[in-house]
Hints:
CATH architecture of the largest domain: Orthogonal Bundle
Helix content: over 70%
Order of helices and strands: HHHHHHHHHHHHHH
CATH topology of the largest domain: MetI-like fold
Number of domains: 2
Structural class: mainly alpha
Largest sheet: none
CATH superfamily of the largest domain: MetI-like
Strand content: under 5%
CATH class of the largest domain: Mainly Alpha
Number of strands: 0
Amino acid sequence: MKFASLVNNRKALAGLILFALTVLVAAxxxxxxxxxxxxxxxxxxxxxGPSTGHLLGTTSYGQDIYSELIYGARxxxxxxxxxxxxxxxxxxLIGITAAYVGGIVDELLSLLTNVVLILPTFPLMIILxxxxxxxxxxMIIVLVVTGWSYGANQLRAQALSxxxxxxxxxxxxxGERRLYVILFEMMPTMTSLIVANFLGSALYSVLASSGLQFxxxxxxxxxxxxxxxxxxxxxxxxxxxxxxxxIAPGLAIAVxxxxxxxxxxxxxxxxxxxxxPVRRKDLRKARKSARAEFADPANAxxxxxxxxxxxDVEVLADAS
Length: 320
């Protein structure tokens, strides 16, 4: 897969720009704010409106909302990338192994995948997060346990269509081991689907982790966008006229989710040409080439001969 194909795709380019901006903010928060300890309570007067000193105002705890937003990006991004990567690895291991090995292994792994797939995800996450503890590690484990099955199902279906291809048969005839065939023969042909599954898992992790933190099942002392929403809800930010305390982290979650979603759609289009939209420029070129074909006398004569042949066939069919 070439980098040029990503840059030429508008969805991928928009998603990459939004994602790169989030990564920059998470990696170097000091470049965007002078307040390097936004979690300290009582630093500023409470419930201040937007100003040059406080771009988004302050919270009911006397914290700067803009600084909290900047420093909260790191935890959200870490959870999304780690949970997305772990869920993708689990999906690849289970989905491709089930399809390639087949038999009783395929039946058992498919049964496990389908059972996890039909479970009500969010209630299950709430139960696991409630009783397993409130930490980032527990949050990641909960997201991985509940988020791998959909990707495994997709990868299994794709691997089944590849299992009997000639290049895999040639690898088996050469005496290659199953692990080698899966890792170096089968997986490279599924790169776009694996990347799309990772982006989908990361998107799921952003939304699910923020939802769990919003209802108080995350680490409430940590700095993240979901915790900001939780604190704003506890202090009734909307009723006190401090709407930016809720709007800012909600908008940030939406932007990061949009970045993952756009890149996910782009990889789907790159991997499956049938999903690519037909551009007006390409449509015009196709029309021009079609007109040029019909304008060519040789093509016109061929078209006339083919019509004659079709007519003869119809006459013979009627006669019989």
